[in-house]
Each structure stands twice: as structure tokens, then as C-alpha cells.
Amino acid sequence: MGNPNAGKSSLFNTLTGMNQKTGNFPGVTMDKLTGIWELEPGRNIEILDLPGIYSIYPKSIDEELVINILGNPKHPDYPDMAIVVADASNLKRNLLLFSQVRDLGIPTVLALNMIDVAENQGFVINSLKLARELNVEVAEINAKKGIGVGGLKLAVIKTLKHRYASNDALPLAVADELIEDVQKQFGEADPYRSLLWLMEHDRMKMFNQEQRESFDHLMEKHHFESKKYKSSETVKRYEQISEVVERCVINLNRQWDAEPVKTWTDRLDKVFIHSFWGYVIFLAILFVMFQAVFTWATYPMDLIDGGVAQLNDWLKGILPDSPLTGMLTDGLIAGVGGVLIFVPQIAFLFFFISMLEETGYMSRVMFIMDKMMRRFGLNGKSVVPLISGIACAVPAIMSTRSIGSWKDRLITILVTPLMSCSARLPIYTVLIALVVPEKNTLFGVFNLQGVALFGLYLLGFFMALFSAWVLKKILRAKERSYFIMELPTYKGPRFKHVAISIYNSVRAFIFEAGKIIVAISIVLWVFASYGPGDSMAKIEEQVRLKNPSLTGVDLSNKIASEKLENSYAGHFGKLIEPAIKPLGYDWKIGIALITSFAAREVFVGTMSTIYSLGGEVDNENATIKNRMRAEINPDTGKPMYDAALGFSLLIFYAFAMQCMSTLATTYRETKSWKYPLIQFGYMTTLAYLAAFLVYQILS
């Protein structure tokens, strides 16, 4: 355990080899993580990585997780010992948490991380003297590079063997009668743990309502004020810690009467967190990022798209014409192709996000955005979920647990899905390719398709802010919230971690979203290939009688189109068509809107299946973009996917709540179905009205 940014998750990864996600901003570890560490040959121990906290007095849900484990000796995850990871470059602040954990009676090892950073800033730590002062084992480590693990092992082995006792004295004295009354009613415990129960009983799940009321009576009986005690205790602890640090840390700057060392972090922050240039640089980074996502990924995407089309054509050529062949080519392979084609873009997107996290720049984004966010009723910590929402709304909503204010947290949960996640990227890619010219450039340099993609992400962000402002007015959130964080030093990216992040993200997309897409593609193929009664069997004969002049490809297209329209899927699409007609959508798009509720990216797999069944275009190796581009609007005789329809669909998917997983996560985090229904209702209404306006204006 340790403070945010202290490096505990990096150490956890090093010890266990699990390669859990790490990042240079608070809120990365939002739940407990477990792994196995081989302490000695033949001796494995289980390690828990807990959320980063500054003290054991929780102010948010993720911090409550920590005290519910450390405060309850009967908890299944109660530790045999604790490794407190401390940032050596900010030792005084980090030792507050260490002293509290030690005083709970838990055997503790202090792991001093980032010693090199402290030395670069002019601080030299005498770890042997510090160990004597604190009466614990101290190990110097570099969690990023895996240095010092051997010394940490020895410290842990020694501590587990001897079980060093903590201080029995409370950091700030209280009446003995108060501690005795707590122990009589709730069992023997270390004095500081008894006091923790008294002060945090409302947040601790080990106590029932009757016990919590008993704690309240004890506080009234002894005139005990928990807020006043916490404040005084913290001041007292810092006084003691300051004396220890003064004796164990040499400040070379002060010794030589020199100016504090100006680091690269100090120099870079003058630009990156500047009140004006900070925003300009952030927008420029995002702009370049989405340009690269669109342009660099084009080549591998075209190869995958063409390869899947060639495979389909080859299989259709060598396999007999049968329902099984149709399910394989137009169902399974079309669905798989709808997944694989977007792997390059997902990989590039997460490459850039990981680089921003690894270098420490993401924390600067949170810092400069804090002032803006508060104007819209959001906490500064809301920046983490909103930025995380670019990847996926599910972990982004879970990361709101670090927000202390319930109303701020609720508003953040409700607006986070408006951020364009990676699931929307496949939809954006296909539709932008249809309505935005590929060869046109902005100022002769920037790809217009990349500019359009950047615009959609910005649109989602500003709509999230506007929605938060409206919700603030509705909920009448008046309490002020504060955002306090420490900016980490800039670090070189750990490319191994970047690669692991990309691999995990792509794997999750392929196997989590992918299995949904493929399953729905196959089910959709069945519903699109069969219809009620014997209507499907008679279609070919009817088409030939009504269109005697049609032959070859034109005849095949007409038969396939009529079969799709009369299938179960076609009937369902026709049923909802009147509701979506004002947006410019036909029954085929209606089918995709319904199926994509399972996951937004299913839209592309659905369209692949529908247009595979709807006929062939006049060239071989037809890809999904070519099929959609060739679609003709029966009412106008012009291309179906013109600018009006294309931008209407883009806006609809930018705002719509088309994700069951996100709604389920909202329910889990709010413990009520009311808020997921509100979230689904307002986002669907917003998407419908915005798409309607766009279509009517452009058409």
C-alpha cells in the first residue's frame, strides 16, 4: 500500500509478474488486486495491491476498501504484514500513512521508492538510521526497474519471523475510559484500532446498525469529536515525522546554501501547466493523436479488410452453395472481419494513451482541466473518468470511486459515457470514410478524416460538460469540492508496460467485444436468411417473373435484397422504421441500431452481415465500405450514405447509450436502477434530437 503515485502498483507488477495496469495519475488501482510472490524457494505468499491513499481516514469509496481490510482482523484479506511504499522524494508526506498502518499493530516494512529522484533533487536518505528511528525494516527499491527486490525480500522474511510490535501509545492521548469502553463492547484490540473503529464506524461494514448507534452513544458520553481528533492527530504526527526526517535526511541544497535544484520537471511544467499554453499543447497533442490514429492505421486496416473479403470470395468459390456455407462466409467470417479490421486503430489509440500515462503528462492534464471542470459542477477528480472514458466507459465509471462528494460522483457517472470510447471508433471509421473525402487535406497538411475524428471526440467532451452543468442545476449541487493531488515527476516511458497495455486492450477488444460481435453476426445471419412461412422460397420465382430483363449480378442482387427484406430481420426493421425515418434511417440501419445495443461496435459487424446478404457490388473482394458506398436510396435513386445520413449517424452514435455493460456498471456503482434508466433516457433523447436536426439541416 502507499500514496497515489508512490509506485506501489509498479512494485506489485515486479514482484508478481502479473503486469497489472500502472499509471502516473491517482485512481489507477480502483479495486484490490492479488498476485503470488515467490519469497523463498518453495515458499509463495499472496500479495494484495490496494488503492492509493494518503491516510487511513477515508474520503472516498476506494479508500473505504482499505480501512475495511486493515481495521478488521477477521476480514479474509486482513494482512500478516504490510509493505508501505513511500516516495523517497517526498518522504515526510508519505510517512503519515506508514505511521498510521504501523500503529494499527500490523507488522510493517517501509519500501523507499524513487531514491534516484530524491538524490537528483539534492536529498540523501540514511535508510539505516531511518530504520532505527522507526523501529522497522527499511528497503531501498526502484520499482520501475526492479532494483532492490532482494533487499526487500530479506526485510519481509525478517519481519514475518519476528513480527515486530508497533507502538502501544496513541499518537494523541485520549481518556483511558473511552478506549476501555470500546474494547468492552467490541472486543480487545490495539488502542489505535479501537480509536479507528470509534471514528470510522459508519464506513466499516463489520458493524451493524445497532453497533453503530452504540458507538454514537460512546462519543456523546465521552464528548469525543472525531473531526477535531483527526485534525489534531495529523498535526501531531507530522511534528513527529518532521523530527525523524530532519535526523535521517540530508538536504544538500541547504548544506551548501544553494538554490533548490531546478529539475527537468520544473522546467517542463512552466509550459505544460501554463494557464494558456497548457490548453493549447493538450489540444495539439489530441489533434496529432487522432490524426495518427486515422492515417497510420489505414494501411493495416486496408490489408485486413481486403484479406477478409478475398477469403470470403475464395470460400464461396470452393464450397458448395448451401446454408452452412452462407453462415460461414456471410455470418461468421463477416463478423470476424468486422472485429479484426479495427485492431490497428485500437492499438494506436492505446499506444498514445499509455504514453501519456507513462510519462506523467496525464496528471498535468488533470491539473490544468480542474478549474474548467468545477464551473460545470464536476470535481477535479472527474477528469480521470472522463479521460479514461476515451478508452472504455466501464472502468472509467468505476474510477469515480475516488470522488468524495456523492453528487459530484453521480454527475460524473451519468456524463462519462458521452466521451467517445474505443467502441465507437469502428463506427466513426466506416462512416467518416463514406462522407469525408479521403484525399482532401486541411491547410494542405492535415487529413480531413482525421480532423473529423478529432471533432467527434471534442464534441463528446463538450456535451459531457454541458450535460454536467444541466445535472448540477437539477440536483442543486451546492457543496464545494476540492481537488488536491501531487504532480509526479516526468519519466521516460516503460515500453514494456506500453506494449502490455496495448496487448491487453486489443485482447479485450477481440475476445470481449469480439465474441459479442461474432455471436450477434451469426444470430443475425439466421434471422436475415429465414422468414415466416414459405415466403422466402417463393421470392426467387417472383423476382424473375416481375423483372424478366434482369440477369447476372443485377438479378442476384435483386433476389438477395428481396430475401433480406422479407426475412425475420427485415420484418423487425420495417416495424421500427417509422420511428427512425425522420433521421434518414431505413429498416436496415434500424436492425443495426437494435443489435448494437449489446455493444456499440456491433453496428459494423451487423452492417457487414446485412450487406453481405443484400447482394454483391460489381467488383471482386467487396469490402464493407464498398458495399455501403454502393447502396442506393430507393426513394431518391441517389447514394444512400450521403453527407446528411452519414453525419446524422455519426452524431447519433456520439451521444447514444448503446452499451449494456455501461448501464450494468452504472447500476453496480449507484446501487439503483433509477440512475441507469435516467442515463439511458437522456442520452437516447439527446442522440435522437441531435441526429434529427443534423439530418434535416444537411438534407
Description:
The protein has 699 residues and is mainly alpha-helical. Helices cover 62% and strands 6% of the residues. It contains 32 helices and 9 strands. Strands 3-4-6 form a 3-stranded parallel sheet, sandwiched between helices. It has a two-stranded antiparallel sheet with strand order 1-2. A two-stranded antiparallel sheet has the order 5-7. Strand 8 and strand 9 form a beta hairpin. Helix 7 (176-186) packs across helix 8 (191-200) and helix 26 crosses helix 27. The longest helix is centred in the C-terminal third of the chain and has 35 residues, at 495-529. The radius of gyration is 30 Å and the shape is elongated. Mean pLDDT is 81; it is low at 22-26 and 615-621.
Radius of gyration, in Å, reads 30 Å
Overall shape? elongated
- Major β-sheet annotation: 3 strands, parallel
Mean pLDDT across residues? 81
The strand line-up of the biggest sheet is 3-4-6
**Structure annotation, total helices:** 32
Helix content: 55-70%
- Structural class by sheet pairing and helices: mainly alpha
Please tally the β strands and state the result.
9
- Percent of residues in beta strands? 5-15%
Terminal Cα span? 58 Å
Parts with pLDDT < 50 across at least 5 consecutive residues: 22-26, 615-621
Architecture blueprint of SSEs:
Elements lengths: L7 H9 L16 E8 L2 E7 L11 H10 L11 E6 L3 H13 L4 E6 L1 H6 L2 E3 L1 H8 L2 E4 L8 H14 L13 H11 L4 H10 L8 H13 L4 H23 E3 H4 L8 H9 L4 H20 L1 H21 L4 H18 L2 H17 L1 H15 L7 H6 L4 H6 L7 H10 L9 H11 L5 E2 L3 E2 H28 L19 H35 L5 H12 L5 H14 L2 H13 L6 H9 L6 H12 L10 H7 L12 H13 L4 H11 L3 H25 L1
Parallel strand pairs: 3-4, 4-6
Antiparallel strand pairs: 1-2, 5-7, 8-9
Helix pairs in contact: 3-10, 5-10, 7-8, 7-9, 13-16, 13-22, 14-15, 15-23, 15-28, 16-23, 20-22, 21-22, 21-29, 21-30, 22-30, 23-28, 24-25, 26-27, 27-28, 30-32, 31-32
